[in-house]
Amino acid sequence: MKDMNSKTKNLQSSLRVYYICLFSVIFMMSVSATSSPENPGQFCETENCTEAMKDISQHYKAGQINFIKQPLRSYSGNCFHLNPDYDAEHTHHGAFAFKTQGETTTTNGVFSFFSETDPYQNMSAAELANYLGDDKTYAPLRAVEIDGEPHFELSFLTVENSIRYWFRSSPDFQRLFLIGQNAGVHYASLVFCEFNLHQTK
After folding, report:
1. Do the strands 139-140 and 142-146 form a parallel or antiparallel pair, or are they unpaired?
2. What is the Cα–Cα distance from 187 to 123, expressed in whole angstroms?
3. CB of 129 within 8 A of CB of 75?
4. Domain coordinates of the chain in residue numbers?
5. Which among 34, 67, 81, 152 would be 20 to 30 A from 144, CA to CA?
6. Taking the CB of residue 156, how many other CB atoms lie within 10 A of it?
7. Measured between alpha carbons, how far is 162 from 160 in angstroms, rounded to an integer?
8. Alpha-carbon span 64 to 132, nearest angstrom
9. Could you tell me if 144 and 151 are in contact, meaning their C-beta atoms sit under 8 angstroms apart?
């Protein structure tokens, strides 16, 4: 009986630890998922941005979010990473496609590092969208308001880090401006991209 009581106490103690750990994980996920993001248009006011990043930031701030009104829009172009692992002046590349059905817009994208030229530039809008994956791989894009301003955001939020991408276009929809942030517990990095619209064939 003494051994049985001892085992019961150990089990109860283990369960308490389990519930405490589970509550901690849920609490941290809740804090991470509901924390308010910074205004992407203001990153270069406090960060050591290059001239190219500042230029993209200015275009982003002047941009608008109506580029998703078409069923499909695909973009690709130059990206610059404010990240200790990369030279901030070096031109990298990226591509994103947006699919709109009714009130829902989904997106998928890719970043290419150290290519001499945009590896996606010769694809049509449909070819690029298919290259990025089928419909199941596309994630929902959501409209958010930050400091009273509208933004389109793609976000991946976990306990350890928060990845967010924000999108705006030029008034004629020919260029897309992306600002992204990967904010972890011990690090943070930014990406600034200027993309060109791919034509339908």
Report:
1. unpaired
2. 35
3. no
4. 1-34, 37-197
5. 81
6. 11
7. 7
8. 24
9. yes
Q: How far is CA 31 from CA 1, 5, 103, 165, 198, in A?
A: 45, 39, 28, 19, 38
The alpha helices in 37-149, defined as continuous H runs, are 51-62, 125-132
The CATH topology of domain 37-197 is Lipocalin (2.40.128)
- Burial readout 116-139 (b: 16 or more C-beta within 10 A, e: otherwise): eebebeebebeebbeebeeeeebe
Using CA atoms, how far apart are residues 40 and 27, in angstroms rounded to an integer?
26
pLDDT in tens, 45-98: 989 999 999 999 999 999 999 898 899 999 999 999 999 999 999 999 999 999
DSSP run (H or E) holding 4: helix 2-34
In the numeric block, which tokens belong to residue 90? Answer: 């070096």
> What predicted TM-score, i.e. pTM, was given to this entire model?
0.80
How far is it, in rounded angstroms, from Cα 126 to Cα 130?
6
